[in-house]
Amino acid sequence: MGSGFGITCNLPTTGQLLRIKDDGSLLSCTIAEGFQFILVVILRVACFYAGAMFGIASQPIGLTGGIACGKSTVSSMFRSQSTKYTMKKDAFAIVDVDAIAHDILIPGKMGSDCGYGRVVKAFDGADIFMKEEEEKKSEEKAKKKDSHTIDDAKEDDGDGRPTIDRRKLGNIIFRDTKKRRALNGITHPLISKIMVKQMIRENLFPSSDNTSTVAVDIPLLFEVGLAMRMIFPIKIVVACDEGVQLERLMERNKDLTKEQCENRIQSQIPISKKVQMGDITIWNNGSMDDLKKEVERARKEVTDRSHAVMNITLANAIGLGGTMVVAACGYDIIKLLAEHSSILQCMMGGDC
Q: Which CATH architecture has domain 62-89+212-310?
């Protein structure tokens, strides 16, 4: 045992170690060699654990949910540190996919990743632009709004070209499947590319000293396919009852009829199925205080999972590795003593 580590010791004893040569004869080696063997085993266990930990840390958390379920509110709460454990770096760095989807339609903002020109060409002749007065209101609203997203370029209000009205664009693709596929074919690769760049950058060079987890706020996580789901080891679903969801959507979008709201909800995977597909569920049926408690519970669960592999901590892993080594070596000693009774007499001080 142990030849793969460069040492052939079987077990440390109170004095010396027993070692078996190729011809079957017994020799002894020093305590130092025995500890060297155990140290190598422990270091290998620690390196394996550290590698697994790095792999998990490099993968972000997926944050999704149904329309009007409160995902944006939850995302905002995750950006702040825990109210209970202020000394811990448990704030989430949020990569906002909706913000990315908005920015790639602003002419000139995202450089080579801008999708404005291709979208305008694909929807040539359609009414997809904001009117002048609507554009001014949109610009004023954007200036007042606090931005918490991880930007990939400098702020840019455009280069003078007309602004795409996302609501008008949405109305078109909602009615026309062919147009929806055309838009997705343009925007999805760009969104994915920018999302991955921001994830990697935030993992390697965190934008805040208080963050230890990167989460991607992605509304249609389950709708976009298996490949996207595979990126996220932990998927958090923000959910509420269907009746509450419809009521909130109608309250938020007063210009939509009840039927239009129902159609928008039905265009997504049912929230009950998303809950089954997710790993952690944050229920948002009650008050804001209730939601904060749910967020803290989810935060703790994510933090616990991020600091363990299969719920085994570093201390547990090293302890388990050491125990296995000692147990295996102990078995070897007992077996040797049973097979060579003369060894026992030698160890007890008799003639060797």
A: 3-Layer(aba) Sandwich (3.40)
